[in-house]
Design goal:
The complex is a heterodimer of chains A (98) and B (158). Chain A is α+β, with helices and mostly antiparallel strands and 98 residues long. Chain A is 27% helix and 32% strand. Chain A has a four-stranded mixed sheet with strand order 1-4-3-2. Chain B has five helices and two strands; from the N terminus they run H-H-E-H-H-H-E. The chains are: A alpha+beta (98), B mainly alpha (158). Chains A and B meet through strand 1, helix 1, helix 2, strand 2 and strand 3 of A and helix 2, strand 1, helix 3, helix 4 and helix 5 of B. Strand 2 of chain A pairs antiparallel with strand 1 of chain B.
């Protein structure tokens, strides 16, 4: 079952403004839909992916080569609140492109 | 869970067997047919490494989860380094035999293989370094703001 992935307006604007080609931005959205929205419990609960013991947040990072833009590798970090996961909701609370 | 990287594993595996057979031999003593086979085999191995790079690049163009990518390819770098060191030794040996009309075509192919491996290794190390970029300090203020926005119903499903 896929989660509903909530993203704030500020983070949507941040994603839209990333220094990536339009195709690469589409790949970022595809990652949210095809990877983040179907993330498995094992990944979410792996202590290596929790940002702090006991906090309701896990980290998921997209590594992307923008072959249609600057030809560079980009790492996009998503921090996600999963305290509503049992209701089918994940909330992206932080996005950063490195 | 990361799966094995089939094409790179195939390339390093075949290269390992190939160099095990080649390195102890005195290349100048090989027959014309054997030299021709050596040239063809090194070109084939080079093609496998070129395929490996295309394979990895294609995956990265689609986007991959960074930790899975790192665990998938980190051990491959070790195997690639062994191949790289062996090719480097063979190139040096072949260069010491020059000029030789029998050895020159072999040297030319091994240099092309060396260049392919150099590019692949550089690309892979760069990708691994990016994948393993240390996380930035957490901006808890921003996180609390988004969580408050969710509580107020101000976030939307993607």
């Amino acid at each position: 079952m896929a989660y509903n992935v909530h993203v704030s307006d500020a983070d949507r604007e941040y994603l839209d403004a990333l220094p990536l080609s339009e195709v690469a931005k589409g790949k970022v959205k595809a990652f949210i839909r095809d990877t983040l929205a179907v993330v498995d419990d094992a990944f979410r609960n792996d202590p290596a992916n929790r940002i702090q013991a006991g906090s309701p947040h896990f980290r998921l990072q997209l590594l992307l080569l923008d072959a249609w833009g600057d030809r560079k590798l980009h790492l996009i970090e998503f921090i996600v609140n999963d305290e509503h996961a049992r209701f089918g909701v994940l909330v992206v609370v932080y996005v950063e492109c490195k | 869970m990361a799966t094995a990287a089939f094409v790179p594993d195939l390339a390093t595996g075949m290269a390992g067997g190939f160099f095990k057979a080649v390195e102890p031999r005195n290349i100048e003593e090989l027959s014309a047919d054997e030299l021709s086979t050596l040239v063809d085999a090194s070109a084939f191995i080079r093609g496998l490494f070129a395929d490996s790079r295309r394979n990895i690049e294609a995956g990265l163009c689609e986007g991959v989860e960074a930790t899975a990518f790192a665990s998938k390819y980190e051990r491959g770098v070790g195997a690639l380094n062994l191949v790289f060191d062996t090719v480097e030794r063979i190139v040096k040996r072949l260069e010491a035999m020059r000029p030789s009309p029998r050895v020159d075509p072999v040297l030319s192919n091994f240099k092309a293989l060396y260049d392919e491996l150099t590019g692949l290794r550089h690309f892979l190390l760069e990708a691994l370094a990016k994948a393993k970029t240390p996380p930035a300090p957490i901006n808890w203020t921003r996180i609390r703001e988004v969580e408050a926005a969710y509580s107020r119903g101000e976030t939307r499903p993607m």
